[in-house]
Specification:
Length: about 300
């Protein structure tokens, strides 16, 4: 997830049970022009393995070149984004706009597959809008073009992130292709993960926003799928400890100044649901130093005394 799933976030998700992580999407054009910031998005560390990086773009030859450059960062696969609904991306014909140009989408996959010796996977949506619901046809074309796996977010571009996910379209894609299919959308509890597996037959489940301020969701899901156990909710103290661990990592990788700025949204996600959360949300937005974070933790604890 762009601006969310950075190195620190991925390490937290891995530590708390994620089987596989993917980097924030990076522009193929940025790669082409050797943009330094874009290259930072592609950095991969062995601790994060198994890990893939994600590229977006709309020109097969530039995407192929970007894959070659991305391969140097040693990801274990390269994912192509065909689901991003952001206007800036869509107007260039990239991201979810590719749902409307399936032949170009297939040409991109073929060019990337030919360019590197790594699995090329693709993330798609249900379709572009109500008049263009084509995840099944597109998935078949992408498989034919050489894609190794497909993630389906069960909403159209027009639906952005809100209406309930269409589970049936994920099931239909799974039935139509023989490569692995990853189900995505609204998986925020272990029960919903199980439902995604059972109702769609998908091979893996992808969790996005359900991991906000809750990276241990992956071990909760894992345990539930393994033996039906719903792990007890973490205490406020445990949650705050994990938040501190996360923010320390962000600061370690990005420096305190930038790190704390980027930690504000994470802090707000961690304190969500705690007593006084509305008040603390504002305090999160004003965090300026690690010391402020420690003070926030002190105040949240004072407002949320430990239960015997
Ligand atoms: C802030 C934000 C950033 C995202 N960035 C990406 C991205 O870079 N690449 C991608 O494939 N999907 C991205 N997504 C979409 C998510 O991966 C996921 O498909 C979507 O949020 C639905 O899953 P969820 O309900 O589990 O969050 C992003 C979503 C959000 C909310």
């Amino acid at each position: 997830m762009a601006s969310v799933a950075d190195h620190a976030y991925r390490l937290m998700c891995k530590k708390y049970g994620a089987a596989l992580v993917v980097g924030e999407m990076a522009s193929s054009k940025g790669m082409f022009y050797s943009d330094r910031k874009t290259a930072e998005l592609l950095a991969v560390t062995e601790e994060e393995y198994p890990m893939g990086v994600q590229l977006f773009g709309s020109e097969p030859d530039i995407m192929a070149l970007a894959c070659k450059k991305a391969a140097k960062f040693q990801p274990q696969f390269i994912d192509i984004n065909m689901g991003c609904p952001v206007q800036k991306v869509v107007t260039t014909g990239s991201g979810s706009a590719l749902m409307k140009t399936p032949q170009l989408a297939a040409d991109i996959v073929k060019a990337c597959v030919d360019a590197v010796d790594l699995p090329i996977t693709v993330k798609i949506r249900k379709g572009f809008d109500d008049t263009c619901i084509n995840a099944v046809e597109l998935a078949c074309m992408l498989e034919e073009a050489g894609a190794s796996a497909i993630t389906v977010h069960g909403r159209t571009k027009r639906q952005m992130y809100n209406p309930p996910v269409d589970i049936d379209i994920i099931k239909a894609v799974k039935q139509a292709v023989s490569i692995p299919v990853i189900g995505n959308g609204d998986v925020a509890t272990p029960q919903l993960a199980k439902e995604m597996y059972e109702k769609t037959g998908c091979d893996l489940v992808m969790v996005g926003r359900g991991s906000y301020g809750h990276p241990w969701i992956f071990e909760e899901i894992d345990r539930y799928l393994t033996d039906g156990t719903l792990l007890p909710s973490k205490s406020i103290d445990e949650r705050l400890e994990i938040m501190l661990e996360h923010i320390s990592l962000i600061c370690q990788f990005k420096g305190e100044r930038q790190g704390i700025r980027e930690s504000r949204k994470h802090a707000a996600w961690y304190v969500k649901g705690m007593h006084g959360a509305a008040k603390f949300r504002n305090a999160c937005g004003a965090l300026d130093s690690y010391q402020d974070v420690l003070e926030l933790v002190r105040q949240v604890k004072a407002c949320n005394p430990a239960q015997e």
